[in-house]
Design goal:
With about 300 residues, the chain is α/β, with parallel strands linked by helices. The chain contains 13 helices and 8 strands. The relative contact order is 0.08. The structure holds NADPH dihydro-nicotinamide-adenine-dinucleotide phosphate.
């Protein structure tokens, strides 16, 4: 059990855009905040706002009961914390890893932490830096619930919503990757659509209001598809794959007629055609989920 002084103190390792936002929110909430970054200089504005700048990761983690690490990926996390001198100092303290990476790497880091007597929570931040310290932040957490509840007051100072997804420490990373899958394929689609629109003399600003309309169509579809996928129901009279694949082919044709590569849409069309080839053309596009990973 950490003392009151340790609970009102936090260390942040990594001062990229996200680490700086996290440290800023902790300072704003009045926590004694110690910071460290591999490349010196990024701590300056935080120090002006009251942060303590540590000279090394071991000095940083020794200053607080809990350390939040938020860097590029787990290679960077390992380079900072998986050294004897840092692990020894972290012994009996808590490491909250808000760096994005894969579930397996989260589980591996948790095993390392357990071997060294370090409390370990893994998490993912689902919203941009500007949401940190505001109600709009979305944080996912996984790992021992008791440890999560112990550090919840510290996490709450970051604002937003915090969801504990379970004791499997890889679960936050698994949600993160599934959600980023949606985000990046959507962004790839939007970037591509703007290129096609530009080739037809339509500016991004002209298309944007209608693009947002596409965004608003999706939430109810997400709910319906989620139910159907979990229940193993794939039929769709209103928008069968045979119809979907035809509109995908139009996108590929127009893109390539303008000399714009259409690899992302070709991949989607290829999946749809695979379903049709298996006699599943009357199903909805979500049949793809079952083709990729059968129930
Ligand atoms: P980056 O992902 O670019 O991470 C930058 C930080 O990583 C810097 O502190 C950098 O140190 C450090 N770093 C990189 N390589 C190493 C290394 N080998 N050893 C030590 N430190 C290293 O920027 P962000 O701060 O934006 O992101 C941090 C995490 O937050 C990422 O996992 C990201 O996916 C996640 N995230 C970010 C969001 C955002 O909007 N920015 C939104 C949601 C999640 P140095 O300054 O020395 O290079």
């Amino acid at each position: 059990m950490t003392s009151h002084a340790e609970q009102s103190a936090v260390t942040v390792l990594g001062l990229g855009p996200m680490g700086r936002a996290l440290a800023g929110a902790f300072l704003e909430a009045g926590l004694r905040t110690t910071v460290w970054n591999r490349t010196p200089g990024k701590e300056q504005d935080l120090v002006e706002r009251g942060a303590i700048s540590a000279r090394s990761p071991e000095e940083a983690v020794g200053a607080s009961g809990a350390t939040v690490v938020c860097v590029l990926n787990y290679d960077a996390v390992n380079a900072i914390v998986r050294r004897d001198v840092v692990a020894d100092t972290l012994h009996g303290r808590t490491l909250v890893n808000l760096t994005a990476d894969t579930p397996d790497r989260a589980r591996d880091t948790a095993s390392w932490a357990a071997e060294h007597g370090i409390g370990y929570l893994d998490g993912a931040i689902m919203t941009p830096t500007t949401t940190i310290g505001t109600p709009a932040g979305v944080f996912l957490h996984s790992g021992p619930e008791k440890l999560y509840l112990e550090h919840r007051p510290m996490l709450d100072t970051l604002g937003g919503t915090h969801t504990h997804l379970g004791e499997d420490v890889g679960r936050a990373a698994a949600y993160d990757i599934a959600l980023l899958d949606i985000f990046w394929t959507a962004m790839a689609g939007y970037a591509h659509a703007l290129a096609v629109a530009r080739a037809e003399g339509i500016t991004a600003r002209e298309l944007a209001p209608f693009a947002k309309g596409i965004g608003t169509i999706l939430p109810p579809i997400f709910d319906e598809v989620a139910k159907d996928v979990d229940d193993g129901r794939f039929s769709d009279d209103i928008n069968p794959i045979t119809s979907a694949v035809s509109s995908m082919a139009h996108i590929v044709h127009l893109s390539e007629a303008h000399g714009i590569e259409a690899g992302v849409m070709r991949a989607a069309e290829g999946l749809a055609r695979r379903a049709i080839g298996r006699g599943l053309g009357t199903d909805g596009f979500h049949r793809i989920t079952d083709l990729l990973n059968p129930l």
